[in-house]
């Protein structure tokens, strides 16, 4: 069922629960991609009605009350609960006219708070850099995100902010990866940064992951906008590990078709290996050529076994 313009305007004016406008049963759940801020991440929200129009503003339930979000489209099927992916929010109803006006003014309030806080930071001579200001829709709290190399005594700053905005104030220190996530940007791949578009939790990334995938260890090649190792190094790491375990390891002597070779390197993407024969010639063996390999016994191992048997 698709919401008509009359139904949509009625909901906007009354703010009634969205379930009352549909003819669907409670068992019918639909999933949408919603965005809390115009520059924020897309998250998945559930609703009992189908066909909510794109760019409409709905109220979703959060830990600190109802917050407005814009619908950006239908969530992919893999985002459903049946497929095991977490649903981030539940859509409660359409936003009322007063909530729409308040939502439109929210960005301006946050921008003003950012400018005021920046001035107060200079006034208190604090070594910190303000990244973003977030104000709860109900006005009960404001969060000021900042970066700093060391711990900062911001008690005087908080006191001034409370006097200015007459609400609860939280100063939250974040790292460079979270800063990049909030600011956003374009990666070297030409796409929007993963952290600002869909990553919700940062996984640990190590240089070992780059080595496992045969990537050049040039810092400029494997580092992101945040000057930390690329988050995408984790995406195929497990696949590479599993595949390498199925292939003969470099340095091993193997026998294929009664001929002995020394494995030089693995080509995971091609599912092939580079080997060297007894005369020093290298060649590439495809999967159907090396899959029946067997390990060649080393002379040193044979001698040790003979020695133990004599003893």
TrEMBL record:
* InterPro entries xrefs: PSP1-like, PSP1_C
Example of a GO cellular component annotation carried by this entry = cytoplasm
- Domain (PSP1 C-terminal) ranges: 89-174
- Look up the coiled coil feature and give its residue ranges: none
What this protein is called in its record is PSP1 C-terminal conserved region
What species was this sequence derived from?
Answer: Desulforhopalus singaporensis
């Amino acid at each position: 069922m698709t919401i008509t313009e009359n139904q949509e305007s009625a909901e906007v004016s009354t703010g009634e629960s969205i379930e009352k406008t549909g003819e669907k049963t409670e068992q019918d759940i639909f999933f949408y991609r919603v965005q809390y801020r115009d520059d924020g991440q897309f998250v998945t929200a559930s609703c009992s009605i189908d066909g909510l129009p794109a760019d409409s503003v709905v109220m979703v339930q959060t830990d600190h009350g109802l917050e407005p979000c814009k619908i950006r489209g239908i969530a992919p099927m893999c985002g459903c609960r049946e497929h095991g992916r977490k649903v981030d929010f539940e859509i409660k109803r359409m936003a009322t006219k007063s909530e729409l006006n308040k939502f439109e003014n929210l960005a301006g309030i946050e921008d003003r708070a950012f400018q005021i806080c920046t001035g107060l930071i200079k006034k208190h001579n604090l070594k910190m850099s303000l990244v973003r200001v977030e104000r709860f829709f109900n006005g009960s709290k404001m969060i000021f995100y900042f970066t700093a190399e060391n711990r900062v005594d911001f008690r005087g700053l908080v006191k001034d902010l409370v006097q200015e905005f007459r609400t609860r104030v939280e100063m939250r220190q974040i790292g460079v990866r979270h800063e990049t996530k909030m600011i956003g940007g374009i990666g070297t791949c030409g796409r929007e940064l993963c952290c600002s578009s869909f990553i919700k939790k940062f996984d640990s990334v190590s240089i070992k992951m780059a080595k496992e995938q045969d990537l050049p260890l040039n810092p400029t090649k494997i580092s992101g906008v945040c000057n930390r190792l690329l988050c995408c190094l984790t995406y195929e790491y497990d696949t590479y590990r599993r595949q390498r375990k199925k292939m003969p390891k470099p340095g091993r002597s193997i026998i294929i078709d009664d001929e002995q070779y020394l494995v030089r390197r693995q080509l995971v993407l091609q599912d092939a290996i580079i080997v060297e024969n007894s005369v020093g010639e290298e060649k590439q063996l495809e999967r159907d050529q090396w899959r029946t390999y067997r390990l060649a016994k080393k002379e040193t191992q044979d001698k040790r076994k003979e020695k133990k048997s004599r003893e």
